[in-house]
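yo

u said u wanted the structure for the complex thing, so here. seqs first:
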Amino acid sequence: MSKELIRLRDLIMEFDGERILDGINLYINDHEFLTLLGPSGCGKTTTLRIIGGFLTPTSGTVIFDGETINDVPPYKRQINTVFQRYALFPHLDVYDNIAFGLRVAKLPKQEIDARVKEMLEIVSLRGYENRHIDSLSGGQQQRVAIARALVNRPKVLLLDEPLGALDLRLRKDMQNELKRIQQALGITFIYVTHDQEEALSMSDTIVVMDKGRIQQIGKPEDIYNEPKNAFVADFIGESNILDGVMLEDYRVKFFDREFQCVDKGFAPNEPVDVVIRPEDVDIVPVREGHLVGKVTAITFKGLNYDIIVEFKGFKWLIQSTDYQAVGSTIGIRLNPEDIHIMHKSEYSGMFGDYSSYSAEYDELTEDAGDEKE
Amino acid sequence: MKKNNAVLLSTPYLIWMVLFTLIPLGVVVYYALTDPATGVFSLVNLRQLGMYLPVLWTSIVYSLVSALVCLILGYPVAYFIAHCGQTAQKFLYMLVMLPMCMSFLLRTLAWVGLLNDQGIINNLLVAFFDWLRSLGGVFAGIPEDFGRLTLIRTPGAVVLGMVYNYLPYMILPLYTTIVKIDHRLIEAAEDLGCNGVQTFRRVILPLSMPGILSGITMVFVPAVSTFYISQKMGSSNTVLIGDVIERQFKQGNNPNLGAALSIVLMILVFVCTGIMNRFGGDEEGSVMV
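structre next:
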């Protein structure tokens, strides 16, 4: 990627003695699409608001283009924001909302007009110039919010859960749209979301956050394939997480059985977390299986079946396109590249067990609700 | 609720309205259109109205000036209250309401006591200059009874009386409007390059407009029809239409002319509210209380 544009150094944020951010260190490159991903209350919105200038960190520095900007007010930053639920001006129509920043900057009328028209084109809202904000659908308001920010040609665009209020179909469309706009205009996007799919499909870089700390930074593929700890493994996609022992390089033991793996660099006999993605497991006849378990539940998901299989009292989630009857006994095989080894962390033992499968799904739907920080 | 129930439940009020508003209004119209001496239909009262136009004009000017002063005084207060913490907001709100809990007459008379030629303010001023003189030196030349000002019986005193009495009616709608302004809109303005002044001018002020209009209406309407304030605090030059109407009923013994005048006043109030509502028309639910 190109040169570094923003650097956050040792950011700490406290509200009423409660630590919201606990030592954030991060750099963001020019033209990058970076996503801050994490559950409610992880500090992602706070981080974004610090970059936008709406909050001043308790300690630490924000560096923009080589200059410390901790005390620079929002209106002097070359950064614009697409706010959660848009925050469009209700007393102005679509055109005036988009022209707002340009008028404040006192640009000549013709230039304002040209740039607003261009923006309307980009977000496919031509002909909506004089529409009242309240008469627009959620998706249209979303586009106005994006246009209102981008028309100022900022170096960085901050997006705070911009698709949170849209329905699934529209979300998917807008995801593609945003990615297209970002690439076409070459602007750095810093995107906040709790939706891991959104993060995986749009980002160049994902920053996974929890409890005010960065858990992992990496490309979407790396985050998914090589999660650093049980939290990341569980938050990004589905994971079965087991206790294991790393015997030596490339050899791990769990469920009293030794497996070949592709990881190395652990201490001999180090206790580790073993991650197995549900879609990586191959179902085979019982006598060919590395492990043998009993199917306890199966749910049709469209693309595949979610199958819960019990191995020695521990329940796994396995995804397969083949139906397996509840109560039947199946064998599974694990290839070395299907086994991911992680160091033990504070999150060990908290995730990756599907014993309470249905309950977990309920929690997920609740989480999809409001984000308050 | 079913529609029938709603009708049933609102019946007491509807009866009240008919008995004590609509019928009396009819009586007022009847009086306005009858000859005071003979009691037959006549336009004689309406023909007399012309000579009261200057008084009506004075009333309008004084009320508008008062509404404007209330706006200038009230907006910062309302803005401040709206940005306080929850508890402070409740307390300050109550403080604004407090004068309204006291009798209108008492409040006005209290001002008379303050502003009179022999009133508290003047006595304090005179006492101050007496004290200065007692120091001697350059102050020895201050004449006796120096410092007494003509405060009462001035146009300013009338405006002061109106402002003091009606200021809460300005602050409350302003406060309810400002407190509802979404804080994210202010952040959005800052994000788009507005400094404090620009944010106020481009976002906060336009979004306060419904409150401003309803505040002006709520001060103007009672102020334009007020009486007593100018009787006590004004002079013969500051007679207001409300006082004239009162005089027709009490001293002039011409209720027919009084009725005609009050109809004119009523129409004026209607027109004013209409204009205000037109201005604030497209803002959602202009805050008419």
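The mean pLDDT of chain B is 89. Residues 3-32 of chain B form the longest helix (30 residues).
cya
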